[in-house]
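Dear colleagues,

I hope this message finds you well. In preparation for our joint manuscript, I am sending the NAD(+) kinase (Rhypophila decipiens) sequence together with its predicted structure, so that both groups work from identical material. I would be grateful if you could confirm receipt.
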Amino acid sequence: MFDPTSPYRRKSSMVNSAGIPSRFRQSNRQNATKKTECLVHQLLESQKQRPPVSRRSTQDTVVVPEQEDGSADNVNGYRAVQADDDSDDKGLNTVLDPKGKEDGIEVCEAVKKGTPISMPSETDDEKTTTKTIIADPQPQKLSEISETDSRLLTKKQLIEMAWGVRELSRRLGSVRLRFKVKSIFLLTKPYDNDLIPKARALARWLLSKDRDVQYTVYVDRKLKDDRHFDVQGLIHEVAREFAATSEDETNVDDGNMGMHYAITATKQRLRFWDEEMCRARPQTFDFVLSLGGDGTVLYASWLFQRIVPPVLSFALGSLGFLTKFDFEKYESTLTSAFNEGVTVSLRLRFEATVMRTRRLKKRKTLPDGDGDSSRLRFDGVDGEEDVDVHIENEEEDEEAQRKRDLVEELIGEEKDDEHTHRPDGTYEVLNEVVVDRGPNPTMSFTEIFGDDEHFTSILADGVCVSTPTGSTAYNLAAGGSLCHPENPVMLVTAICAHTLSFRPIILPDTIVLRIGVPYDARTSSWASFDGRERIELKQGDYVTISASRYPFAAVQVPGRRGEDWINSISAKLGWNTRQRQKPFKEEDGDHGARESKEH
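The corresponding structure tokens are as follows:
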């Protein structure tokens, strides 16, 4: 996978470039300007670019220790055994959710980032890498990059993808990455007057002439007219600093730079972002600085649905499971991060896709017999896919819709029919996906499927499917288990289930989970993704939830990776906090009498 002699290997691999043969090193230099992906996804791609394994058949040869039978196949105590590849028999090569896979969906710049990586020599205790960025603003269709939609992967591909992300996360845990940062994305709450002055001070520090690099700082467009942030005042402060320096060096009143030129140059370095820019051009940003609490970090995950720059979070919120750095030390923290590098932790995210049922509609036909008749067909599908059901009126149309069976369409005889449902939006989720009753006064009725199996039906206020990172959020409030963020699992917890027997369950992250509203449910349900984008799920609709190939890159405090999570739940949630039990207190005489009896 990370073999330095492999011609398929890319320079982003965690291998010292000194060990690369010269013929490969030259080709890497030639490809240094090719536009590929951001850092994390280039590293993932490097694991995928392995030389193909040549196989003469679907059988592999496995060598096992030979028992003392003296057979002719026994060679040096070992014998050869043929092992059959039963991936097909186990369904590992079958697409887990083929519904609507021919529908092309516009996605936001899935993989559009040029990131040539250079790997210097190792130090005694760590490795460092250097990152540069090349932008590529071309859009893509999901049908053109269908491998990015994990629900369309086979079971085997999903397992390999999840394993690749975990393996890369494990490797990055012991590696310090040094970035060549030019563009910095500054994120804070634009309505919090306590945080806005801090964001301004941080922007002022980044724009200062004392920095070794002239950073371009992007701030929320909502702060452009905010009086506390005072954009014009900030620009003039920085410009006066540069103009004064130029005058001192040239001993000319106006200086080479001049105040006017300094203001113009500073305006070019202080820019503004909005959600559309984050969706369309995420490769613009090299580094994200978050000022706030966990909600601010979740918003960063929501803004960067595919490409996620490394996120360094300053703790300025309430709890702060995701915010690791003290803002009072931001100068030393950022100086160290930019000059010495950072340790990145890849947090598992879910990919959630809303699937809409195609309603059966009438279509007029002229049969050979007498009179007119109609047939039902799936909405938006060619006549070749018509369902051979004749109807007489609109009531029969609705009745045929209610008679459809979601279980049959997802895991039964109709599971391979791609035209029963269509995709209607995909979201990358860091905390949880919640399907609940919404504004309906009654319970929601949902079905839960895992791969090709029907798990259960739930009558409850809703169901929460959480990532390990989100186990301390809604999952905790609903009575779910706490889970270390490095565990590769999905946590499924019912919200106020109307039963005594439903217990929270933990599933592997290689499952494609589907939560749907049956056709005969009394009411619709509502889905939310990290508490955002509330979407109504009508009868027949469902949501697929699977591990995403786009993890969230969170910068960690050096040397605190192992104990950080336990300390967080102990300090912020009071985990297992209890008054210590008092020891027995005995009289001295009783203690001496007991010792004499023992002797």
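For the figure legend, we might mention the following. The mean pLDDT is 75. The first strand starts at residue 59 and ends at 65.

With kind regards,
E.M.
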